[in-house]
Known about the structure:
The chain is mainly beta. Helices cover 7% and strands 27% of the residues. The protein contains three helices and 14 strands.
Amino acid sequence: MTTGSLKATSPSSTPSVEPTRRDFLYVATAAAAAVGALATLVPLIAQMEPDAATLAAGGPIDLDISKIQPGQQVAITWRGKPILVTNRTPQLLETLQDPKLLSQLADPQSGELQQPAYAVNWHRSLKPQYGVLVGICTHLGCIPLFEPLQNASQPAANWLGGYFCPCHGSKYDLAGRVFNGVPAPYNLPVPPYNFVNETTIRIGENPPGSDFDFSSVRQI
Length: 220
């Protein structure tokens, strides 16, 4: 097992490299289903510390995604909310289009306004490889756990991989789409974001030509 750390930065300032008690720590264990076998992927501990002034102002923050290994997830804080960024492997993406999964989702086509127009697609993101979600359960605001490994019994029966809220049992797939028959009523929100370049995403800023207002989502 190896661990790594990634650092989020403000577009206009450089954060301190010294950790503080404000650091947001998130442990994400990743695993994917390969054809005929399960490939266990390396867990990652992401330690993020955006500039304090940027956090207070709710301004955009940048994240270097080149260090997120396939199957791994990191979390950073934007406007006081955990933002989950996942590097989804081809195997993980394949599960998002599985009819067995789609038949169990409450809003598989993202009909409810829980994302910008540029994320109304089967992967709910600008690029299929990278998922960007607000990590707050739409039931009562708990933080769901990243559980990508398919399992017959854990963390829930017939688990297909995704996010599981241990508070009241709400389930989401790896695109943040909520399952039928769980307490949570809506998909996990997608925040405004764009790609500054091939290796950097800026959370809190829409791509050119989009005016998505995050405050317009149905529920956070």
